[in-house]
């Protein structure tokens, strides 16, 4: 046992927030509390919890999780759960490192030795997908994801959807699987049309075909299409997820370990989804600590489907990548067939380069989410 001595956080390029926890014996764990576009809010939550949890037993991960959840009165939501994720992941890393085992050994052991993965192409205004898909193929990926559309009006010309179909057909012609992210940009009148147009080209799944506040619409759409429906990055706890499972309108659940309360809650969501025959494809266009946390849980899930990797994603802008801030960059090498080896090192299985983190965290401005403005001056979904 060892009491928590320090909790620190580091704002890092391109849009990440790392958390470091150290106990009184000098054991260290790293977490990630990245919440794209809301860094300052998460930092404020962490400031309050740093003051509160110094002196708690670092091994008591579930007790600290329950303290955060149940003694705050107001609970849930992206800010709260992202801050909790940073602490939770760091505590799991600390405990497993102290014991000299990967985190998955503390979760019951692994059920697989490698993980199917996919990467992004196309950007926020998707184009040039053939060249980008071929680049991913050269990296051994067999599956990619791309945004379905640029910004759309609530009711737009059907012609705006044709390029989505063309891009999917282009990637499929290369022998690759492609997931299509509607990104919540597409409202119901257009989503029904787009799903129908995409179906003959058999996408791997369509993601966030509607915003998650529109549960009845998602249920209706799920009955309209044979394409698997994926969502979950904007669901922040098992309580958020439950209505979608009960409605039978999601085929692939995509909780984000950095937004849903960390490793502790991700594994609970996975177990709950298993009872509905729903696969997990954890959302993770974030940093190396969050990805490593996903991989630790993925290794233990019977219902794991595929893992998102932020390698070279357009949001990184060349300022940093998942190979940044860690010492062993080879852990992200994708093997033939589109697989990532389950890491065997202690804790998260990655070694954070603290000197690099501290150097790069100085005077970093918080990332601001982009937005779309329509031709009439109206705000559109990004």
From TrEMBL:
GO MF, any single term: galactonate dehydratase activity
Entry-linked PROSITE patterns: MR_MLE_1
Co-factor requirement: Mg(2+)
Protein name (record): Mandelate racemase/muconate lactonizing protein-like protein
Pfam family, one: MR_MLE_C
Keyword Secreted: no
Domain annotation Mandelate racemase/muconate lactonizing enzyme C-terminal: ranges: 126-228
Keywords annotated in UniProt: Lyase, Magnesium, Metal-binding
Entry's Gene Ontology BP terms: amino acid catabolic process; D-galactonate catabolic process
Gene3D superfamilies named in the record: Enolase-like C-terminal domain, Enolase-like, N-terminal domain
Organism for this UniProt entry: Massarina eburnea CBS 473.64
Annotated InterPro entries: DgoD-like, Enolase-like_C_sf, Enolase-like_N, Enolase_C-like, Galactonate_deHydtase, Mandel_Rmase/mucon_lact_enz_CS, Mandelate_racemase_C, Mandelate_racemase_N_dom
């Amino acid at each position: 046992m060892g009491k928590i001595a320090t909790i620190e956080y580091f704002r890092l390029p391109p849009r990440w927030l790392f958390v470091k926890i150290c106990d009184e014996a000098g054991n260290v764990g790293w977490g990630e509390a990245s919440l794209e576009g809301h860094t300052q809010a998460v930092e404020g939550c962490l400031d309050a919890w740093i003051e509160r949890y110094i002196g708690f037993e670092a091994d008591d991960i579930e007790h600290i999780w329950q303290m955060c959840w149940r003694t705050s009165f107001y609970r849930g939501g992206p800010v709260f759960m992202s801050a909790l994720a940073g602490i939770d992941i760091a505590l799991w890393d600390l405990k497993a490192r102290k014991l000299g085992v990967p985190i998955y050994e503390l979760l019951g052991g692994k059920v697989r030795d490698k993980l199917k993965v996919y990467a992004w192409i196309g950007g926020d205004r998707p184009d040039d997908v053939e060249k980008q898909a071929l680049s991913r193929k050269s990296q051994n990926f067999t599956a990619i994801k791309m945004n379905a559309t640029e910004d759309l009006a609530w009711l737009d010309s059907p012609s705006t959807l044709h390029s989505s179909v063309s891009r999917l057909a282009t990637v499929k012609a290369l022998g690759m699987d492609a997931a299509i992210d509607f990104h919540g940009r597409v409202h119901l009148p257009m989503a029904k049309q787009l799903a129908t147009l995409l179906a003959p080209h058999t996408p791997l799944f369509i993601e966030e075909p509607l915003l998650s506040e529109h549960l009845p619409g998602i249920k209706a759409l799920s009955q309209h299409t044979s394409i698997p429906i994926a969502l979950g990055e904007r669901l922040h706890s098992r309580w958020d997820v439950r209505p979608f499972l009960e409605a039978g309108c999601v085929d692939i659940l995509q909780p984000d370990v950095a937004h849903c309360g960390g490793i502790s809650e991700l594994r609970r969501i996975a177990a709950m989804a298993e009872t509905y025959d729903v696969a997990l494809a954890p959302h993770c266009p974030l940093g190396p600590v969050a990805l490593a946390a996903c991989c630790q849980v993925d290794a233990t899930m019977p219902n794991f489907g595929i893992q998102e990797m932020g390698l070279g994603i357009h949001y990184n802008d060349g300022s940093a990548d998942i190979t940044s801030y860690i010492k062993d960059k080879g852990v992200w090498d994708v093997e033939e067939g589109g697989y990532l080896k389950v890491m065997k090192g202690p804790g998260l299985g990655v070694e954070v380069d603290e000197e690099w983190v501290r150097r790069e965290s100085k005077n970093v401005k918080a990332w601001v989410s982009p937005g779309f403005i329509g031709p009439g001056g109206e705000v559109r979904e990004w």
